[in-house]
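Thread amino acids onto this structure.
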């Protein structure tokens, strides 16, 4: 994959570049801060950004939001030594495709890149011509369309990946929205078989929207999407009508297995 590295530690930049190059990835550039990152992305067109959290100027969380606002197809691997409470969840909700905590071993970073690569490949069929008119690739493979789906997530990259994974399972994604209020309206309009509902969204969060979605479309199976598997949160969502949850960063095998079990495939 085509990668750029952003880290304010020179030794870390050198180590990351060596590890990624040795694993067969193309390191397009290494940078000590996020200043001018947008211009660098436009110039170099990376597929992946390895992004440190604590940087001079704009921090890594702010930069993830900037990247995904303009380039939702770019994967960000968030790297930090911070012990800040909830930092992994914050990174996942911001759209990080992977998370590495310093200090890390060679195997850990290579495995994280491999997981990101597998996720990219699972969603790649979105750029291919439709295999059958009006049906996703998965519908042809399974022999039939298994229903419709709506995706509600405020992160464009998450919406893209989820769309690819749901269609691989034979669901036709009829609408993708960015907040809970839009999710309620989409549920009422489409009565989908499945609705993937992010917990942390602007305007109306997933937990607030969940009972409204259930009321608007009682037969819809609502799956929560979250960067946190807190037991109390999971229990609250279940009590409001969710059938389960999917963790961020998204991993194809887990998501597809969950969806196929739900559909009885």
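Threaded sequence (265 positions):
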């Amino acid at each position: 994959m085509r990668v750029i590295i952003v880290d304010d530690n020179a030794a870390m930049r050198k180590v990351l570049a060596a590890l990624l190059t040795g694993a067969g990835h193309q390191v397009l550039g290494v940078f000590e801060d996020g200043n001018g990152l947008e211009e660098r992305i436009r110039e170099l067109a990376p597929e992946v950004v390895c992004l440190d959290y604590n940087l001079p100027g704009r921090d890594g969380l702010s930069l993830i939001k900037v990247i995904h606002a303009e380039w939702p197809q770019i994967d960000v691997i968030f790297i930090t030594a911070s012990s800040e409470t909830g930092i992994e969840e914050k990174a996942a909700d911001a759209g990080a495709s992977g998370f590495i905590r310093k200090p890390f071993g060679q195997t850990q970073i290579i495995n994280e890149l491999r997981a990101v690569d597998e996720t990219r490949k699972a969603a790649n069929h979105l750029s291919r011509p439709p295999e059958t008119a009006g049906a996703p690739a998965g519908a042809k493979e399974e022999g039939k369309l298994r229903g419709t789906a709506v995706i509600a997530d405020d992160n464009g990259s998450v919406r893209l990946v989820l769309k690819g994974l749901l269609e691989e399972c034979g669901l036709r994604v009829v609408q993708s929205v960015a907040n809970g209020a839009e999710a309620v309206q989409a549920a009422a309009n489409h009565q989908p078989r499945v609705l993937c509902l992010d917990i942390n969204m602007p305007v109306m969060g997933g937990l607030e929207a969940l009972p409204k979605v259930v009321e608007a479309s009682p037969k819809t199976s609502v799956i929560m999407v979250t960067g946190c598997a807190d037991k109390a949160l999971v229990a609250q969502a279940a009590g409001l009508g969710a059938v389960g949850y999917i963790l961020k960063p998204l991993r194809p095998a887990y998501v597809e297995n969950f969806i196929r079990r739900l559909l009885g495939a």
